[in-house]
Structure formats: structure tokens, C-alpha cells
Amino acid sequence: MKEHDSATGPGTESLLDVLALRADTPGSEKVVHFNNAGCGLLAKPVLKTMLDHLNLEAGIGGYEAAAAQADEVAGFYREIAALINARPRNIAFAASATHAYSTALSSIRFEPGDVVLTTRNDFISNQIAFLSLRKRFGVEVVHAPDAPEGGVDVDAMAALMRARRPKLVAATHIPTNSGLVQPVAGIGRHCRELELLYLVDACQSVGQYPVDVEEIGADLLTSTCRKFLRGPRGSGFLFVSDRFLEAGHEPLFIDMHGARWNAPGEYEAAASAARFEEWEFPYAAVLGCAAAAKYAREVGLEAISRRTPALAARLREGLGDLSGVQVLDRGPELGALVTFSIKGWEAVPFKEAMDARRINSALSYREFAQFDFGDKDVHWCLRLSPHYYNTEREVDDVVAAVAELAG
Ligand SMILES: Cc1ncc(COP(=O)(O)O)c(C=O)c1O
Q: Which residue windows are coiled coil (predicted)?
């Protein structure tokens, strides 16, 4: 056991030098940050990278700073590719996961009667996008049923793939509204076998688990950089497979960066995933993402993926023992998002009571998860999402705070 174990308590901290990681995380001294599913705390090297670039922009000009840092900017593609087992040419920068997702959807030529097959736990904005496709193109949105233990029933989903031949299969790896981890690789195996387009939302899993686009079998995969990857706000990415690029898919609106205007009546889309990007980049954020991806790989995704869900499991267990508190997470595999309801409180005052104790959390409402919260018959819940730099002691303090409020 390492020296710091006494400060963090027994558990998985021996996998990582938690005290050193906390020393690298200025925010960890100020708050108990259990809102990593919202936005992770920046590590010092990430912050420094961005501040240095902003200073360079102020000093020599924005275009000139980007040119001076061209190799570091290319590092964004290298780092994200290394993080998800892809090649740099298959990565596009995006301002958000949602922007990456809608750009990807816009590149699929939907026609009336096409089927989009998804799950009951896919992210709220993705569900709204599917409904918008239904409104505009007459696409049918089909939700695969859940298994009795929670999470999508992969066999039932595969049967729907065979019966309905969907134009698109879409799955969210870890939804925003519970601790569920969906079996995206299991779904992907069927998509590959049946040659169906497969879009994965990995927003909550990138930075929390090793994510491997080959193993998942994704044609397209989206993520933000700000959550468990601990990158800056306003940044994300889209992975686009060679299969998808070679099939000639391109976004509905493609700009002067994504395409060359060859002749007055003609353009040619970029060969790489750059066709999904726009010309303007927030370069400080792009460099911050590269630094965050590098940092996560140096910490080690295997160790992160053991420690982070283990902290969440400890939290779930502690909360589960409290009377008046109902832990809502269900599924064969649970990650670092812990959700619960509490008797006798309204949503906002309860979160404010947590804020007053310097415990960062997030509220989820019924409209975030119509199916899941409908099944659980809850109207809101509080979400707590620790990360590897949090400590066992913080987990226990949070349980004690909730116990006090529940009482
Ligand atoms: C599962 C999931 N997908 C997508 C998103 C949207 O990400 P962004 O806000 O970067 O568009 C979120 C954000 O909470 C999410 O949890």
C-alpha cells in the first residue's frame, strides 16, 4: 500500500497515485466534485496548454498562433485516435457531442419508411433528433425492449435488426440518466454481421472506460471532451470509419474546410473525417482536448475504469442503506453515474442543500429519460458522478451529508 492510502481510505486508490492526481487538479481542493458526468475538473497541464495558446493568440494573432502550433493541433487527431483505437484521419473535431451527432445524422440519406433502431435509454437529444427525422422524412423510430435486469436486450435488438433492416442502429454507451452501461460491443457484432450502419454515443464512457471503435464495431461514434475525459467545455469529436467515408456519406451542410469548391458548379468532399468539420476552430480548446486525452492515457484507462466505477459502487451502497433514499441505477453493469431519489424534498432545494455543502451534483428530470424514469415512476433524481481523483473519504462524506438531509 502506498503512503497516501491513509488519506483516501482502503479501496482501489492503490491503482493510482490519487494524491498526486489531486495535486494536479486545483478544483479538488475547493469542492467535492461529484459532477464529472456533467463536466470533469481540468488538470493543470490541460489548463496550462489552453492558457498558453490564448496568450499566444493575444500576442501574435489568432491565425498566426494556429499556424505556429500546427503540429500540436495535428496532435489532437493523434491523441483522440490513440484513445479510441482509430487513425487520425477518422477523427473530426466538434464543438459538442450533440453537434457531432447531428452532423453524422445529416450525412445519412433518410427516406420515408426507413427505420432507426435505438434503445429506451438513448440520450434525450438523440431521441429528439430521431423524432425530428420522423417529422421531416417519415422515418420510423423503433426502440428495442429492455432485458428484465435492465439495459437493452441485445438478442431482442438483433431480432429487430433482422426483421426490420434499419437504415441506422443507434446506441448510447452510458446514458445521462443512470449508472447503466449498455452492451455496445454486443450490439455492434450484430450490426457488422448484418452490415447495418451503427452510430454510438460514447459521451459518458470516453475517459471513464477504454473505448475501442474496432471492438465496438461502430461506423460512427460521438463524444464530448469535457466529461470524464476532463477536457474543456465546447469541445468534442466524431469518429467516422473508413467504411462510412468510402461509401461517400457527407454532412448535409459542408463548408470550405470539409470540401473543395472545384468549379462554379462543383465541390469535392475531403477524403478524411475533415469533411465533418467546419473551418473555424476554438484552437485553445482543440489543444486542451489533445492534452486531456494524453493525460487520460498517461493515467491509464484500465486503472481509471476500475477505480471510478468502484468509487461509484461504494457511494451506491452507502446511499442504498439510507432510509428515505432510493437508488435508481439498474443493469448488469453499472458505471460512475449514481442516481437516487429522496423522500420529502423537491428537486431544486435538495440540490441547493448539496451545493451549500460544496458537493457538486446534477439534477435529472423525467423529460431527460421518458422511458427510464417512466418505468421507475420518478419525476426527478439527483445524479452524483465521482471520478478517479475523488477519494473514498469524499464518498463517505457525501453519504453522510445525504443521510443528514434524508433524516
Ligand atoms: C450520453 C450523452 N450523450 C450526449 C450528450 C450531449 O453532449 P453535449 O452537451 O456535448 O452535446 C450528453 C451530455 O450530457 C450525454 O450525457
A: none
